[in-house]
Amino acid sequence: MGFSWRLRVAPKALYQNTRVLQVLVELLSGEEGFYEIMLELLNIVPRAFICETFVGHKYYVGPGSFLPVRALPRGNFDLKFRYTIRPADFQAKVDIQQSLLDKRTKRLEERGTFQSFNYCINFGDLHDENLKKYDDSLGNEWYFGVHRIHANAEFQMYMYIGFPGIYEVQLTMLHPVEEYDKELQCEREFQYNQKNMFNFQIRWDLLKAHGFTHGYQDCVKIRVAVRPVQVDLQHIEDFVKPSKYAQYTEYREYTSSSSSSD
């Protein structure tokens, strides 16, 4: 969903004239809003802190003092932290959800431009799937490759991460002479890891004879273009349900003799 958080730990921060362990969370990317945040130290000296606060970009959220340094043993050891985050209440859920939907709607209104990528495979490798991964600016992660089951040239495409729904797909098998390009255009429904097949109605063994291997390059080139027609935004709602946390666990090394850092 494009949310990115960072845990910042200052092992010897100064708070009210006392050396403390300071633990803060930073929102690097994602929607600003009113969140409930729980910070936990899971080992050595178990401790938890929870708050409800507005979280924005460019500043940190957390207690001024998470734990006095004197409460920690001497020596070198790892500290295991966990931070869990969710919208603080129903209104926060609605606000964050609406912001996400507004941004997604704006992208869909600009659907006139296709997201495109190029697939190239050596003619001698057409007996294998040779799946390759492509990302688009909508946040979708696509896999595209050969589907060598039938006599005709057929390719497979599926969505690994992104927004399930109906997409318009344009596939072009490129020819050195543009007017001989073979094109397919259709609307397909994509669900996670569900393969969609595209058949160019030309036999694999005729590709070279018809010039689709680009002479000395000896490769087949496919241009793929996709754009959303109707996408499923349900998982946006799932993310912002108040009962669901985004949870992260990190280890940080602590040295009792180290100077303050983050």
**The number of domains:** 2
The first-to-last residue Cα distance is 27 Å
Q: How much helix, percentage-wise, in residues?
A: under 10%
CATH class of the largest domain: Mainly Beta
Would you give the CATH topology of the largest domain? Answer: Apoptosis, Tumor Necrosis Factor Receptor Associated Protein 2, Chain A
What does this structure look like?
The chain has two domains: 4-89 and 242-255, Sandwich (Immunoglobulin-like), CATH 2.60.40; 113-232, Apoptosis, Tumor Necrosis Factor Receptor Associated Protein 2, Chain A (Sandwich), CATH 2.60.210.10. 10% of the residues lie in helices and 52% in strands. The protein has helices at residues 90-109, 234-239, and strands at 4-15, 18-29, 33-41, 47-55, 60-61, 67-68, 76-87, 115-122, 132-135, 141-146, 152-161, 165-173, 182-190, 196-203, 219-231, 246-255. Strands 1, 2, 5 and 6 form a four-stranded antiparallel sheet that branches. The chain is elongated. Residues 235-246 and 257-262 have low confidence and may be disordered.
